[in-house]
Write a structure and sequence with these properties.
The complex is a heterodimer.
Chain A (H helix, E strand, L loop, with lengths): L1 H17 L1 H21 L7 E7 L4 H11 L4 E6 L3 H9 L5 E5 L3 H6 L7 E4 L4 H29 L22 H32 L1 H6 L5 H31 L7 H25 L3 H18 L12 H6 L5 H14 L3 H29 L2
Chain B lengths: L1 E12 L2 E12 L3 E5 L6 H8 L7 E6 L2 E2 L4 H6 L1 E5 L10 H11 L4 H14 L15 H12 L6 E5 L7 H16 L3 E5 L3 H4 L4 E6 L2 E6 L1 H7 L5 E6 L2 H9 L4 E7 L2 E6 L7 H9 L4 E6 L4 H13 L1
Parallel strand pairs in B: 3-8, 3-9, 6-7, 7-8
Antiparallel strand pairs in B: 1-2, 1-4, 4-5, 9-10, 11-13, 11-14, 12-13
Classes of the chains: A mainly alpha, B alpha/beta.
Chain lengths: ~375, ~300
């Protein structure tokens, strides 16, 4: 049995190494995705373009504007002089936010009456708009309390805030979204590469008729599947290592938890992904179809339903159930625990069990379908 | 001694019966021809005999093992080669041999010896590192046969092994088949080339899943056609053939080169019927000979009879 598995693994490795196109796909695809998701998809809101319509033009209003622009969150998009320009700036996306300081701003201030400042925010991208609103809110409040303190100090009173807010973000202190996305990205890359490579390798044998020769040999279905998956597990492991290395070099992401459990989790995940690939190979009869089904079945769920980008907790209950169609869902939880939080296996062992259940269920269907199809 | 004993072998796919109660026997070391039109059930039968398709009913003993009950033991004892010469084109000659040796569990000295043998019969000694895709068809075919029998099986199934190969390679390939038979290996071969069927010790013909004829080529020619057959050389071949087909004393007609073969039926009396017919339609007959039927005549006759 061992010899037969060795023979098929050896043959598979030689074919793979000789297939330049396949090798290019296997190793360039992750680099491409990592670059795309690492740099292009970024939920961090920095350098908000802000335009200022200062109707007051007093020292008080200028002081407020300076305090606003001094933070790294806001970049000045320009000074406006009319209501018409506000519309134009927001319409043409010259500014994401316009701050309007009214005529009576300094007059009210000196009269010791509260004055109002208006913010007009581009609400097309709801997420960003909310973030901008929070930023301007905090900036305005802090300037306001600074002024209050100054006024009271002039009157000889000392103020202190009764409660001081000091938030700390754990696991991802800079709230860096790449750090949050990387585990999902690793999951997606690994599942896509494993599903497609194994599916193509089997469907190619069907297409060329070589599978017939294997079917009439004493090689059993299980031996063939094990023999075929070994080279791809090795390839995918190398891939995983490369992505982690790139994550460290490009985005400074280190492994906080146990490397052993990281490898174990990756292996279990690869196993379940390869089972999915085997299933695809029993559905598809040509390499094109295998590639399409493989991409569809691996990429879309791991992108949308795995919690990679969109949190599963905020999905409707029905969709939450559907999320179980991708093992990436479980793997991402493990990876986030190990990579970002440095947690032990006690936290994520259930996810490993789920992945195993998923793998064996899919393998059972694939084997049954394969045996039926062989005839 | 019989190598293969098939008894009432049947395979149904839903309501469609692909192989219908087929029984035959193949002697050890013989070359056994298995003939039939496309879709007649040849491949389905071979798949059942190889142990990769379970029969619906009936059974076959291949090398002494039941294909229904012990398909894994059957697989150990047979070799199989199909028309697609299932070699890996992206592997070298040696890697292909290593792979097939490996999946049949060959090791050590025996493996080295068999590898040499395969290289020898494929004329590829010293060319082990060549990519299989660069080999000509005839050589590929020999290599495929070599790898299919690398484990020295008692029985080899060849499913249309010579389709798409030039005549000289085909002739050489048959020499190879004969040498296997000389080593007491049983060869069951399907083919569309009837002149190849002449090389077989015994032949069976199946049509629509049923066995319709069996015997040596000589027996087939004498036992299955009792009516006289004529070869006619004449002008307007197509016209003459159409005319002959309409006559009530003619069973079937077919064209062989410039000649027409006419298989008569029980209403036929003598040659003058054909002469008179041609004369009245101004077809110029050069020659009419009564002939011994070819295998093709026999098969066309049997298949046409099956249709009626």
């Amino acid at each position: 049995m061992f010899n037969r598995i060795k023979a098929i693994s050896k043959k598979e490795t030689k074919q793979l190494i000789r297939d330049v196109r396949m090798m290019a796909v296997i190793f360039l695809f992750p680099v491409f995705l990592l670059g795309m998701f690492g740099y292009a998809i970024n939920f961090d809101v920095h350098h908000i373009k802000i335009a200022v319509y200062d109707q007051d033009k007093s020292s008080v209003s200028r002081e407020f504007i300076n305090s606003l622009l001094s933070s790294e969150y806001f970049d000045l998009a320009g000074y406006l002089n009319s209501d018409k320009q506000i519309k134009q700036n927001l319409d043409e996306k010259l500014a994401q936010c316009v701050v309007v300081i009214p005529y009576n701003f300094s007059r009210e201030f000196y009269a010791n009456r509260p004055s109002k400042i208006q913010y007009l925010i581009d609400g097309v991208d709801g997420n960003t708009a909310t973030v901008i609103m929070n930023y301007v809110n905090v900036a305005t409040m802090s300037h306001s309390s600074k002024l209050t303190a100054e006024i009271l100090a002039r009157k000889g009173m000392n103020v202190f805030a009764l409660i001081q807010l000091e938030p700390r973000f754990w696991f991802n202190p800079e709230l860096n979204s790449t750090r949050f996305l990387l585990p999902g990205l690793i999951g997606m890359i690994l599942i896509v590469v494993s599903v497609i490579t194994i599916a193509l390798s089997i469907v190619r044998e069907k297409e060329r008729g070589t599978i017939e020769q294997i079917n009439v040999s004493p090689l059993s279905t299980i031996e063939m599947m094990i023999g075929k998956t070994i080279p791809y597990i090795v390839i995918a492991l190398i891939n995983a290592g490369l992505i982690l290395l790139a994550g460290f070099i490009l985005f400074g992401i280190t492994i906080k938890g146990s490397i052993l459990w990281l490898i174990i989790s990756i292996l279990i995940f690869l196993f379940s992904s390869l089972c999915l690939g085997l299933l695809v190979s029993t559905i598809a009869d040509s390499q094109q179809v295998a590639f399409q089904i493989g991409t569809l079945i691996s990429m879309i769920p791991s992108l949308l339903l795995s919690g990679f980008i969109f949190p599963i907790e905020s999905m409707p209950p029905i969709v939450q159930i559907i999320t179980n169609i991708t093992p990436a869902k479980f793997f991402i939880v493990c990876l986030r625990s190990i990579l970002l939080k440095g947690e032990g296996v006690a936290v994520f062992w259930q996810q490993l069990v789920f992945m195993m259940i998923f793998a064996f269920a899919v393998l059972a269907i694939a084997t049954r379908r394969y045996i039926k199809k062989a005839v | 001694m019989n190598s293969i004993v098939v008894k009432n072998l049947t395979k149904k796919f839903g309501s469609f019966t692909a192989v219908d109660e087929v029984s035959f026997e193949v002697k050890r070391g013989e070359i056994f021809g298995f003939l039939g039109a496309n879709g007649a059930g040849k491949s389905t039968t071979i798949k059942m005999l190889c142990g990769i398709l379970e029969p619906t009913s009936g059974d076959a003993l291949v090398g002494g093992f039941s294909v229904a009950k012990e398909p894994d033991k059957v697989k150990q004892n047979i070799g199989y080669m199909s028309q697609r010469f299932s070699l890996y084109n992206d592997l070298t000659v040696e890697e292909n041999i290593d792979f097939f040796g490996g999946i049949y569990g060959l090791e050590g000295n025996l493996f080295e010896e068999r590898k040499k043998w395969v290289l020898h019969i494929a004329n590829l000694e010293g060319k082990e590192k060549l990519l299989t895709s660069s080999l000509p068809g005839g050589i590929k075919q020999r290599l495929a046969l070599g790898t299919a029998v690398i484990h020295k099986p008692q029985i080899v199934f060849l499913d249309e092994p010579t389709s798409g190969v030039d005549p000289i390679s085909r002739r050489n390939f048959w020499d190879l088949i004969n040498s296997l038979s000389a080593e007491n290996i049983t060869v069951l071969v399907t083919t569309h080339y009837l002149e190849e069927a002449e090389y077989c010790n015994n032949i069976i013909l199946i049509d629509a899943g049923k066995l319709i004829a069996e015997g040596s080529s000589k027996q087939l020619k004498t036992n299955y056609i009792k009516v006289p057959i004529f070869e006619i050389e004449c002008s307007n071949v197509v016209e003459a053939m159409e005319l002959l087909e309409k006559q009530d004393f003619v069973g079937e007609t077919s064209i062989f080169g410039n000649n027409i073969h006419v298989i008569t039926n029980e209403k036929f009396k003598d040659e003058s019927q054909i002469h008179n017919l041609c004369k009245s339609s101004s077809i110029n007959v050069k020659r009419i000979n009564k002939i011994i039927p070819t295998l093709e005549d026999v098969f066309i006759h049997l298949l046409e009879k099956g249709k009626k």
